[in-house]
Design goal:
By secondary structure, this protein is an alpha/beta fold. Helix content is 31%, strand content 25%. Strand 4 and strand 5 form a beta hairpin.
């Protein structure tokens, strides 16, 4: 019988690590957590939370203009970047303290420093070593900026929230949801934004109709979208940063944000000392219990290269703790996980894309609707909402729902519950809508746009 210092040592105090630590401690385990940056991880500090706060700020600019046709005659006030940035810092500091109290409330010991694995049951933090029956790696991901001439002048999503001065001209490189969201944020705050993506259309992995509609609507807001182009070099000069592009053009901006992907944050973790296998993309390989190839070492969240969403990491942390410290058979179901992109307007999605549905089901039925939001019939804003239902013809089950429009993320959460319960198109059709709302369109789309 080994006499370890702890039953569980968690490396990384992000969403997944903190949830696993709290629940394990609640089941009676002796728990320690090591974190070398900030409590709450990416989501709280440089991800979901500050991003959503900045989205709110960006939407005010358009709302001031919308208000004029509703009788509000005052002009839009000036925007002050420092006020937003510093108020955001105060809110994040408050949340850091909340996370600290959550861990101290369950008597989990927190070490401020990078955890380094010495062997299958030993973790070092600084010069001190601690033994543990189980080690959990939850160090998350880290933005990746590829090397090219001048790449040292680019910033990542980690730094963009806290820029000393507001970039009047901003280039954003990338086509994922992070790039799209920041393009909307800074465009809404008043920056002249150019978004560059090497592919023919951004938001790869989302439904094709949503991707096309997003390109159309985002371009309307004033973002300069440039597809099938890449940055060859960045050169600083008197007028800012000069970007030479692969189409033989050049642009000059005040800042360049690279949002071209994230990689598992494993540097200095000491994995060379144990038998933890990595995948080709650098993420940690785990089984369905989040166990690595080293039996006493586990990993979960973004570091494993799965679905990189905060609620998924939370669910994995709960599943891990319940299995390992409560003896419960608890697994995470990765089907019908809803997601949102907080661009303007928002995107909400759950279930299969049309392409995925065609590959999985013999025949499908499609329902689509495009309309002007009621608010903008008076505001005059040129914006269209798009909705799409994908139905398995054999079972009548709704297997994919996609939307771009105001409050899409909020609407999709309720839709996801129905889909998890196996709702059919007949159930949608028999549901009484809330009038007048955009959401009621999901229960009034009667005529199939296309049927196999």
């Amino acid at each position: 019988m080994h006499n370890y210092d702890y039953d569980l040592f968690v490396i990384g105090a992000g969403s997944g690590g903190v949830r696993a630590a709290r629940m394990a401690a609640g089941f009676g385990a002796r728990v320690a957590v090591a974190e070398d940056r900030y409590l709450g991880g990416t989501c709280v500090n440089v991800g979901c939370v500050p991003k959503k706060l900045y989205v709110y700020a960006a939407e005010f600019g358009k709302a001031f203009k919308d208000a004029r046709n509703y009788g509000w005659r005052s002009e839009a006030p000036a925007f002050d970047w420092a006020t937003l940035r510093d108020n955001k810092k105060s809110e994040i500091a408050r949340l850091n303290a909340v996370y600290d109290s959550l861990l101290s409330g369950v008597q989990a010991e927190v070490f401020n420093g990078r955890g380094r694995i010495i062997d299958a049951h030993t973790v070092a933090v600084g010069e001190r070593r601690y033994s543990a029956d189980k080690i959990l790696i939850a160090t998350g991901g880290w933005p990746h900026i590829p090397a090219f001439p001048g790449s040292e002048h680019a910033i990542s999503s980690n730094e963009v929230f806290d820029l000393e001065t507001f970039p009047e001209r901003l280039a954003i490189v990338g086509g994922g949801y992070i790039a799209v969201e920041f393009a909307g944020i800074f465009n809404g705050l008043g920056s002249r934004v150019t978004q560059l993506y090497r592919g023919p259309l951004f938001l790869r992995g989302f439904d094709a109709d949503i991707r096309a509609h997003a390109a159309q609507e985002i371009a309307k807001t004033g973002v300069d979208l440039r597809f099938e182009v890449n940055v060859q070099s960045i050169t600083p000069g008197a007028g800012g940063l000069k970007l030479c592009l692969s189409d033989d053009t050049a642009i000059e901006v005040d800042a360049v944000l690279y949002a071209t992907g994230r990689k598992a944050k494993l540097e200095g973790l000491g994995l060379e000392s144990v038998k933890v296998q990595l995948r080709d993309d650098g993420s940690i390989e785990v089984d369905d219990e989040y166990r690595t190839s080293e039996p006493s070492i586990f990993a979960l969240g973004d570091v494993t290269g799965g679905i990189e969403l905060t609620p998924v990491a939370l669910a994995e942390g709960m599943s891990f703790a319940r299995r390992q410290f409560a003896g419960l058979e608890n697994t995470v179901d990765y089907d019908f996980i809803p997601t949102a992109v907080f661009c303007q307007p928002n995107i909400g999605s759950v279930g299969f894309t049309e392409e995925e549905a065609r590959a999985r089901f013999a025949h499908i039925r499609l329902f689509k609707s495009t309309f002007r939001p009621m608010k903008h019939t008076i505001s005059g804003r040129d914006e269209k909402t798009f909705m799409k239902l994908i139905v398995d013809k054999a079972s009548d089950r709704v297997v994919g729902v996609h939307m771009m429009g105001p409050d899409a993320g909020e609407i999709m959460q309720g839709i996801a519950i129905a889909m998890r319960a196996g709702a059919t198109k007949a159930v949608f059709d028999s549901t009484i809508g809330i009038h007048p709302t955009a959401a009621e369109e999901f229960v009034t789309m009667r005529e199939a746009w296309r049927e196999d």
